[in-house]
Design goal:
This protein has two domains: about 110 residues, Urease, subunit C, domain 1, CATH 2.30.40.10; about 325 residues, TIM Barrel. The chain contains 15 helices and 16 strands. α3 links the parallel β7 and β8. The longest helix is centred in the middle third of the chain and has 18 residues.
Length: about 475
């Protein structure tokens, strides 16, 4: 058989990594060989011994928290960062994705502008919101995102417990994930008000007003409600190891739950919050160094399901406003362009996890959880979403050089020791280190596929690729 394209390099599959090649036709992987020179293509691209990974998947992106970002800029940033698919959050400004007409407009924008593939989260209104779930599910959302903490009563509301339980039941009926920003609104609102009254506005007070108990109490409540409702629960941006302990206990009882952490919670601590101030303000906040170490141990022990960026494309003015009052600064930081290289340095080169496990944390596990059945691994029949990483190619992060509209990062001037050499979406080259972004967009809207529900639940309860090392 002659293939349209053959990609050669050091291939990373769920079973391991080896020098080989991949045969691609019509955007699909048709053959994987553990020897080079066995497959014949109209075009052959040889990356030597550079790592050839499955396209990475970021399940936590905010394209429209800042409307200056949008689909084109965010998906270009994703391609440069080795992310071939992402799930965009529903808390768009000015209108959240809580009805079908708004969802359809966003789908059309994705299909017109996206450089990489994008799935979309839906959400529900503040009151009696579960009524919108059926129509949004039928329209193809990948899951529903809700919050126990209120940022804005219309765009990013706190959902009351009775509505949460009803939403859990409805999403379970559609076999869709329901995810939560889990922070205790009552506690942290009071702590923030007390700090402001006392004039405690330095950066560290963002951490002190959001202690771990504000996360863990919200997590436990959601876990218990999921156990009663049969929901497919997902806890986003976990910042503390105790939250993972609770998740693991409920998993052992049969609750269908997964948890993510974000790259910031593995690479930064409260010392960085003190040093960088508003640049390092995220929700939940950065934790103490020993707490970060404990969270990392959970990851290395296989107890964290995957890692996301929580990409929030704020600009300098959104952060500098909080220079003397941390509570005025926007929360969040960009990550699409830098998460994968930073994590590869830290987890593969420094901590010694296997390439296959790295691929699971950043591709296979999110693909399984959100039923992106054509994504997540280099295997026959899957989409030819491929990312090439070159080791030993140092470069320095420059916040002023992002493809994202964001121009502020606590990783500014940090040296990374690997780079994204090329990114392919369904076999189309969308980014290369030498040529930049391909002007011909290849991305499209994607939605969950059909899988066996028992297998789906078993994937959430365990079964990692290989070992943490």
């Amino acid at each position: 058989m002659k293939f349209e394209k053959v990609i050669q390099g050091h291939i990373v599959t769920p079973e391991g990594d080896f020098s080989g090649e991949i045969g691609i036709n019509n955007g699909k992987i048709l053959e994987v060989s553990d020897r080079k020179g066995m497959l014949h293509g109209e075009e052959t691209v040889d990356f030597g011994e550079d790592f050839v990974f499955p396209g990475f998947i970021d399940a936590h992106v905010h394209c429209f928290s800042n409307p200056n970002e949008g689909i084109r800029k965010a998906s270009s940033a994703a391609a440069k960062g080795g992310i071939t698919s992402f799930l965009d959050m529903p808390y768009d400004l000015p209108v959240p994705i809580s009805n079908v007409s708004v969802l359809e407009e966003k789908i059309a924008e994705v299909n017109e502008q996206a450089v990489v593939d994008i799935a979309l989260w839906g959400t529900i209104p503040k009151e009696n919101g579960a009524q919108v779930i059926d129509e949004l599910a039928e329209a193809g959302v990948a899951g529903f995102k809700l919050s126990t903490f209120e940022t804005d009563p219309y765009r990013f509301p706190r959902i009351e417990d009775a509505d949460i339980l009803e939403a859990m039941k409805k999403t379970a009926a559609h076999n869709l994930v329901i995810a939560f920003h889990a922070e205790n609104d009552e506690m942290l609102t009071r702590y923030i008000e007390d700090a402001k009254k006392a004039g405690q506005k330095e950066a560290i007070h963002h951490n002190l007003t959001r202690p771990p108990v504000t996360e863990t109490t919200a997590v436990v409540k959601l876990l218990d409600m999921a156990s009663w409702s049969g929901a497919k629960l997902h806890i986003v941006h976990v910042s503390h190891a105790r939250s993972i302990d609770y998740v693991e206990w409920f998993k052992q009882q049969g609750t269908n739950v997964t948890a993510e952490t974000c790259y910031n919670y593995l690479l930064l601590t409260t010392e960085d919050l003190k040093k960088f101030g508003p640049k390092a303000k995220i929700n939940p906040p950065l934790r103490l160094p020993e707490q970060v170490e404990a969270l990392e141990r959970k990851l290395l022990e296989g107890q964290i399901d995957f890692i996301t960026s929580d990409h929030a494309p704020w600009q300098k003015a959104d952060k500098t406003i909080g220079e003397y009052d941390i509570f005025k600064a926007k929360s969040g930081s960009p990550g699409l362009e830098i998460m994968v290289p930073l994590l590869f340095d830290h987890l593969v080169d420094q901590k010694g996890i296997s390439p296959a496990r790295f691929a699971e944390l950043l591709a296979l596990a999110p693909a399984r959880r959100f039923r992106l059945v054509d994504k997540g691994s280099i295997e026959t029949g899957k989409d030819a979403d491929i990312v090439v990483i070159k080791r030993g190619a140092p470069w320095r992060i420059d916040e002023n050089d992002f493809l994202s509209v964001s121009d502020v990062s606590p990783f500014h001037e940090h040296t990374v020791h690997n780079r994204i050499e090329a990114t392919f979406v369904r076999g189309h080259l969308v980014y290369s280190h030498e040529g930049g972004i391909n002007t011909q967009t290849a991305g499209r809207f994607i939605k969950p596929g059909e899988v066996n529900r028992d297998e789906d639940k078993q994937a959430a309860l365990g079964g990692h690729v290989g070992t943490s090392k």
